[in-house]
Amino acid sequence: MTHPVLRGRASACLLAALLTLSGCGEQAPQALGTLEYDRITVPAPAAEPITAIAVREGERVAAGARLLTLERTRGDAQLDAARAEVAGRREALEELRNGARSEDIDQARASLAATQAQARDARAYLARLQPLGARQLVAAAELDRARAAAGSADAQVAAARAALAELDNGARPEQVAQARAALEAAQARLQAQAETTDRLDLVAPRAGRVDSLPYRLGDEAPVGAPLAVLLVGDAPYARVYVPEPLRAGVEVGDRATVRVGAGGERRYAGRVRMIRSEPTFTPYYALTGKDAARLSYLAEVQLEGDGVAELPAGLPLRVEFAE
């Protein structure tokens, strides 16, 4: 026979369990995750030391605000070299377009006259030797030298005449086109170098909050390394992992309730802005109960309402999707 005290205790436990079950309704479908902002990075345009840092981590900045400054000595020198190359290419093109100077043409004409005089003298000397050679009064070798000298003088006359014609006719159209192309290439290099040099003063591409400054004053980061990380956007979003049983009922544009914090004491309205079609394994913080062995789908829920812009990134949250 059961003792009356034991029967009383069993009845009390059963009554408490029934009350607990009656008070717990079915929970809405939910997914776990963290609060995030859109992140953008400002990469290093060149491997130069950091000479100035104008902001602090956590500070709000406007679009175009200066963040950091890199050493400009090498960049300014390269920019000056690019400008000098453009100037040289431009002058070379103008020289081809303007043609030869009058002094160069006069010098070519004088050279032609001198070679013509030498050619006349060589031909006259050959003419005097030919009768003597026919009577064998001079050596055959002497006659051959005179004949070679006359031919060389005629060739020099032809070369001087061609040089004068080249100066008179000016540069060929192909040479002008090549010089123009070389100038355009130099201008393009100058523009690229000017852009690179201007980017040594790093500015915020969008308004936001400085989340991270990985490097310190004097550091020399490699090209492409993130010198600053900004959190941008008017409002944060919830990055959650939707369990596989809920995936079929969640679509872009669906309404949701976002509970921020470990206890979910702060509630905000939200709307699904993205959900992946390919699943990923459940992350460690979502391994609860039967969900531990299930696949999940990465989703983003945009928070709406007053005060959401002041929420810090990284807070834990859970999202309840409307039925």
UniProtKB/TrEMBL annotation:
<dbReference type="Pfam" id="PF25881">
    <property type="entry name" value="HH_YBHG"/>
</dbReference>
<dbReference type="InterPro" id="IPR050465">
    <property type="entry name" value="UPF0194_transport"/>
</dbReference>
<keyword id="KW-0175">Coiled coil</keyword>
<feature type="signal peptide">
    <location>
        <begin position="1"/>
        <end position="27"/>
    </location>
</feature>
<keyword id="KW-0732">Signal</keyword>
<feature type="domain" description="YbhG-like alpha-helical hairpin">
    <location>
        <begin position="77"/>
        <end position="196"/>
    </location>
</feature>
<dbReference type="InterPro" id="IPR059052">
    <property type="entry name" value="HH_YbhG-like"/>
</dbReference>
<protein>
    <submittedName>
        <fullName>HlyD family efflux transporter periplasmic adaptor subunit</fullName>
    </submittedName>
</protein>
